Amino acid sequence: MNDDFDIAYPSEDQPYEVTSFAKKHGLTIRVAEAVLFAKGPSRMACDAAASAFLCAVAQYAKKQPAR
Description:
Helix content is about 60%, strand content about 0%. With about 70 residues, it is an all-alpha fold. It has a domain at about 20-65. Helix 1 (about 20-25) crosses helix 2 (about 30-40) and helix 2 packs across helix 3. The longest helix is centred in the last third of the chain and has 21 residues, at about 45-65. It comes from Mesorhizobium tamadayense.
């Protein structure tokens, strides 16, 4: 039996580390912690939540008047 595994591609059932998740999605540590707390440990759910968060922030920014 081959017990080797690829560290570069962790399985879906392994939770993210906060800093790597934050870097991957361009989030602050605080926001990454909140997303991981709300949607973890599923990597797929966390990735989707991060994308939704970034889209919501972008939409909010578009609605703000220019300074």
